[in-house]
Amino acid sequence: MVQVLNLSLIFFCVILQINAQKVNVCKKFINYYLKSPQVCYYNPDQNTEVPDIVTRLGYPIESYNVTTEDNYILTVFRLPQPGAKPIFLQHGIALSAICFVDTLESSLAFVLYDAGYDVWIGNFRGNRYSNKHVTLDPNTEEYWNFSFHEMGKFDLKAQLGLVYNETGKKIYYVGYSMGTTASYIYNILHPEDASEKLDIIVSLAPIVYMKNIPSSVAQIAPLWPLIEPLVTKLTHGVILQRSNVSINLIKTLCLGNLFEMFACQALIQSLFGYDNDQLNPETLPVTMVQNMEAISTKTISHYVQFILYGKFSYFKFNEETNKQIYGNAIPPLYNISSLNVPIYLMYGSNDFFSTIKNVDKFFNELPEDTKQNGKYLVQLKKFNHADFITAKDIKSLVYDPLIKFLNNSILQS
Ligand SMILES: *[C@@H]1O[C@H](CO)[C@@H](O)[C@H](O)[C@H]1NC(C)=O
Ligand SMILES: *[C@@H]1O[C@H](CO)[C@@H](O)[C@H](O)[C@H]1NC(C)=O
Ligand SMILES: *[C@@H]1O[C@H](CO)[C@@H](O)[C@H](O)[C@H]1NC(C)=O
Ligand SMILES: *[C@@H]1O[C@H](CO)[C@@H](O)[C@H](O)[C@H]1NC(C)=O
Ligand SMILES: *[C@@H]1O[C@H](CO)[C@@H](O)[C@H](O)[C@H]1NC(C)=O
Ligand SMILES: *[C@@H]1O[C@H](CO)[C@@H](O)[C@H](O)[C@H]1NC(C)=O
């Protein structure tokens, strides 16, 4: 009798073990205890790339390459709907185009495609899809010598030029987080180009002013300038690069069991804002693995300057270099008054990076003719920074209102 019990126990454990390897997502958090095959399954999106995911979910996909004026080679994806209004999505820091397709049918790219748009998705320099350069080796400090300034100045100019040339139509721009910062820099540095090519800039979690943000990064920010030179030397200017080691580390430390899942989320939410309610059990193991991408140390330095000085300013070098580059010991501010594309801000009450106060300050400084559309506060008290791409109810909370706005837009042409 004991033998039989033992045997069946071993058998049960073997089954669980097999399941543990095959199954990677469950419909509810509680299901992660047993990972029973009725409510858990293997989602390949955790381990594949943008074209695989898009195809798997039944949508068409195309890839384009474009070279920037400073010779970075970028990939732009498209879910083509020729003749329809083009919409261009641009990801934030530590992300790639995959963040717009990795939450099953509620992913922004699919929701927009279903609403009848020709969907284009950009990739900033340095991520896994845009990691080539005509002459520079990506394993050098020279390659990683950029912040979101260059992403706005060069990457957006090239990518939007591509979309405009291919479609012959003006574009709706939708940026998230750093994709908003870079869009304002693009518009400020290239006002004619931007007003020729863009109908509107929609900003999800806009980042311009970062004064007094409650994020835990604000506590670390003052230390960053002290350690940055050493970090840059040791890492040739890039951290969080994707590798099988880093991916397996996340799977082992943050997705191994329910306790780990919530422990890692607690850490992450100290950065983004606390909101366990909107964690999506079915896509969390996918987004945790996929939404992680290299960050140049210069990008961190530039945002740290935003946090420490509270200004929307060009990159601050040392005094001598500032004089050389800007003709002044202090770097200039980006001129918000020279924005000339209409802007629509969508923001959350519990966003530790993009606070209501800082969004309001930016909105108040916008030129009158760019802010006629007003702004939209997401109707959920706990809505945080990450929720804009991963929230369980993202479609009803943000994407449906976004499409309603775009559909009704007087700019529709
Ligand atoms: C884009 O560039 C990559 C890498 O250089 C290459 O593998 C791919 O075939 C190119 N795609 C297109 C559409 O040219
Ligand atoms: C990075 O660019 C700045 C100017 O933008 C230049 O002064 C500096 O020498 C560059 N550093 C490297 C490592 O290329
Ligand atoms: C778009 O077309 C213009 C005019 O022909 C050309 O100058 C530009 O380089 C093109 N841009 C891209 C990204 O293809
Ligand atoms: C990483 O793992 C994948 C599949 O798991 C494999 O195809 C790839 O070669 C590995 N890459 C490296 C650098 O080991
Ligand atoms: C900022 O842009 C506005 C509008 O183009 C212009 O009137 C103003 O002089 C600019 N300010 C600076 C400091 O360049
Ligand atoms: C937007 O327009 C598309 C196409 O006309 C339509 O299918 C969709 O339901 C509309 N969505 C909203 C929220 O108005």
Automatic annotation (TrEMBL):
Belongs to the AB hydrolase superfamily. Lipase family. Residues 50-101 form the Partial AB-hydrolase lipase domain. SUPFAM superfamilies: alpha/beta-Hydrolases (SSF53474). It comes from the Eukaryota. The keyword Lipid metabolism applies. The keyword Hydrolase applies. InterPro entries: AB_hydrolase_fold, AB_hydrolase_lipase, Lipase_euk. This is Lipase. Keywords: Hydrolase, Lipid degradation, Lipid metabolism, Signal. Residues 1-20 form the signal peptide. Pfam families: Abhydro_lipase.
